[in-house]
Amino acid sequence: MTGSWLHSPPLRFGLFFGGLMLLGLLCPNYELLTLNQHLLLAANVLALNFCLGLGGQVSLAQGAFCGIGAYFSALAHGLWPEGTLVIVPAAATLAFVLAALLSLPIETLGEGFLAMATLCIGLIFTNLVLSFQTLTGGAEGMAVSLPLTFPGGFELSGDRTYFFLFFALLLLGCYTFDALRVARPGRALLACREDALAASACGIDRSRTRALAFGIGAAFSAVAGAFYGHYSGFISPRLFDLELSLKTLLFLVIGGPGRLFAPLLAVLALESVFARLHFLGDSKVLFNGLLLAAALLLKPKFEAGSLLSLFRRKP
Fold this sequence. Notes:
Blueprint: H1 9-26, H2 29-54, H3 62-79, H4 84-107, H5 114-131, H6 133-136, E1 142-143, E2 149-150, E3 154-155, H7 159-182, H8 184-194, H9 196-201, H10 206-232, E4 234-235, H11 242-255, H12 262-274, H13 284-298
Antiparallel strand pairs: 1-4, 2-3
Helix pairs in contact: 1-7, 2-7, 2-10, 2-11, 2-12, 3-4, 3-5, 3-10, 4-10, 7-8, 7-10, 8-10, 11-12, 11-13
């Protein structure tokens, strides 16, 4: 029992979010933009953890779902400037339903093709944005001039305000993740991840159960994208392309799928280093891919199980 208190959920939540709050309050204004960009990535890493850490689904579609939230919110606010309280939840709902419906046929492809199928979702999203140029601005992107606005004309603006928004989103996501994995649906997801045949023998519908995790992850990514779109004031397909999905998977691999705070700490600690690699240019996607491959090869065993085993053909 010695030291078990160190692993208590309230203490871990208090240490992580207390430290994050202190960092946000003490961070100079000119560095808050970078911190908020890190929190956007952390929110997507947490979203992927629902799919991979709980359900065992390797997904490369988080960038697409993040972009769906950003574009949906930007376009919807153009029609209803004060509809933030409806538009942002609607973006999350849209992403949840879309992801859950897409997850069902993807499940029939088998584990080895799951990552490739989700990669196609990202490519389809990018092509749709480029095709509807009059709405989305195409490859040149679109300006998001309208802020998040609540009834009564209260507008959200400023780096520190959006820090608290991302902080609240991460807090909600971590609480949901922690509560889900000890609840019955979470235990069903873990059973599906560990042994699909045993889960089916217990009466668990693997496709529908994992669609829940895929949908929840997509919803959190969509909300993060909606926040960031209004915060940055500009969105384009490049912000939500394969690089974002690869980095999301990379940090989750480094921190360990199924672990709650380690991947988020990996984002905050390592992304500050990776952000200085501007000299790589478009080669950053290749760099992230090679780094992900190295992480898989050098760290094949996680507390949540081996990622490499997800790609092995089951007897």
